[in-house]
Amino acid sequence: MMKHKINNSWAGLILLALSMGACKLPHNAVMPELKTVPTSYNGLKDTNNIAQKNWQQYFNDPYLLALIDTALQNNQELQIVKQEIEIARYEVRARKGEYLPFVGLNAGAGMDKVPRYTNIGAMESQTQITPGKDMPEPVPDYKFGLSASWELDIWKKLRNARKAALARYLASVEGKNFMKTQLVAEVAEAYYELVALDKQLTIVKNNVKIQSDALEIVKLQKIAARTTELAVRKFEAEVFKTRSLQFTIQQKIVATENHLNVLLGRYPQNIERDDATFETKAATDLQSGLPSQLLENRPDIKQAEQNLAAAKLDVKVAKARFYPSLGISAATGFRAFNPSYLLLLPESVLYNLAGDLAAPLINRNAIKASYFTANAKQIQALLDYQQVLIKAYAEVLTQQANIQNLEKYYDLRSQQVDALTESIKISGDLFKFARADYMEILMTQRDALEAKFELVETKLNQFNAMIALYRSLGGGWK
Asked: What is the pLDDT of residues 138-195, one digit of tens each?
């Protein structure tokens, strides 16, 4: 009858702890509404998508492909991110171990001297192990055995923590993929910038030759008293100005090469490139697919999605801390004051088994703060996910318009360059017959040089827009 009452008392205490721990839980935070992604880009619903191509298929310059391959292998920032992935992977393993039983092997030795004039000391002084053998003093202590502890994951607190760690691991993997996308695009942009600078340097050298030839004509005209010293000096100044541009461009080439070598994870060296690449027409018929494909192709969107999943699980973990936790501990082994007695059965055998139930009852401010923090981070992760999605959609639309406008702009600039190039010859012929002055020749040559430079920059912008669209759609990491 007494045993039945004790059991009922323990059951009552457990129910009381459970009820106290579960009462007055904070409400979940109100989550913002998630906006759905649009169904198309400007009404186009073509499912073909250049992001489905890997970078070896998208780019066709062998020198550029070799540079991208080197960057993906040696870039230091990418290697650092890979180590962060390893850290996240081991964090998952650590979280998994928390909800499994902990079992350890224990062994020890010690010495214990109890004062004689105490209750334990008095009893030990009267104790005989065997007839004629008293308890040794001081008392040695030898032991070895197994111990185990296990927190029962009733509310899935530990399992949800492991799932959150797993989601963050997957987010770190997507972060690496996003960095690969960025790296491929950055290497390609630097490569085409180098080729564009080579093209500009060639234009400058050709223009120096044209201006030098014109200078010689002006000098002959001066000798024939058909022009003045002012015209000669003006032409000389223009030649010096154009020649000085060579060194500006050469410095830009050095800086761009060094930047590209840093991306490749190596010390500065010459970058091999094919100038003929710049003569090819930049692609304009680039399929963007559907906006919903961004969810699968853009690594930064998938990274934000995994971070949101982890934040949701963190809220569940924080909420589970309000509930009681149940732990079980056990131990078994052998213990004796003499090593020769350690394996004597059953006298040297020890064992224990205990259960521990703990629930927060008073002063739960720390747990509440942790819970509210988790809710705020969940809202933050949702807003971040929405922001990344909106930004990705806007980037695609921007580059689509950019490609179309640059194509029209390039066509008009090409016609301008053709007209100015022809006007240089015409102005030279007119000057020979005194039907045009030297200022018309100078202005024509200057306008032609500027137009050619702008045409090269426009072509570079076309290549950059092609790269940017590929990156915006999520291409480059596969």
From this structure: 778 888 888 888 888 888 888 898 999 999 999 999 999 999 999 999 999 999 999 9
- Tokens matching residue 93: 């393993």
| Structure confidence by residue, pLDDT tens digits, 208-254 | 888 888 778 778 777 777 777 887 888 788 889 889 999 999 999 99
Q: Which residues of 187-201 are buried (b: 16+ CB within 10 A; e: fewer)?
A: bbbbbbbbbbbbbbb
Return the amino acid letter for 158: L
Amino acid at 139: V
Q: How far apart are CA 309 and CA 47, in angstroms?
A: 28
Beta strands 139-152 and 349-358: pairing type? Answer: unpaired
In this structure, what is the dihedral angle of CA atoms 211, 214, 219, 220, given to the nearest 10 degrees?
160
CA-closest candidate to residue 427, choices 240, 229, 217, 230: 217
Residue (of 164, 282, 231, 129) closest to 436 by Cα position:
231
User: Cβ atoms within 10 A of the Cβ of 326, count?
Assistant: 18
In sequence order, which residues have a C-beta less than 8 Å from that of residue 214 and are 6 or more positions away? Answer: 235, 428, 441, 445
Helix, strand or coil, per DSSP, at residue 246: helix
pTM (two decimals): 0.82
The CA distance from 394 to 400, in Å, is 10
Task: State pLDDT tens for residues 255-293.
Answer: 999 999 999 999 999 999 988 888 887 776 789 999 999
Three-class secondary structure of residue 326 per DSSP: strand
pLDDT, tens only, 52-83: 999 999 998 999 999 999 999 999 999 999 99
Angle at 165 (CA atoms; ends 162, 169), nearest 5 degrees? 135
Tell me whether residue 288 is exposed, middle or buried, using C-beta atoms within 10 angstroms of its C-beta: 0 to 12, 13 to 18, 19 or more: buried
How are beta strands 102-112 and 128-130 bridged, if at all? unpaired
Q: Which helix (H) or strand (E) holds 375?
A: helix 365-432
CA-to-CA dists, residue 230 to 243, 438, 443, angstroms: 20, 10, 15
Question: What's the average model confidence in pLDDT over 308-328?
Answer: 90
Tell me the CB-side half-sphere exposure of residue 194, using CA atoms within 13 A: 24
**Residue 261 backbone dihedrals phi, psi, to 5 degrees:** -65, -35
Q: Please name which of 420, 410, 409, 419 lies closest in space to residue 448, comparing C-alpha atoms.
A: 420
* Of 385, 288, 378, 344, nearest in space to 48 by CA: 288
Q: H helices of 224-298, where? A: 229-263, 294-297
DSSP H helical segments within 433-472, as ranges?
438-472
Tokens for 452, please give them.
Answer: 């050619």
Burial class (CB in 10 A: 0-12, 13-18, 19+), 173: buried
Q: Within 10 Å of residue 22's Cβ, how many Cβ atoms?
A: 13
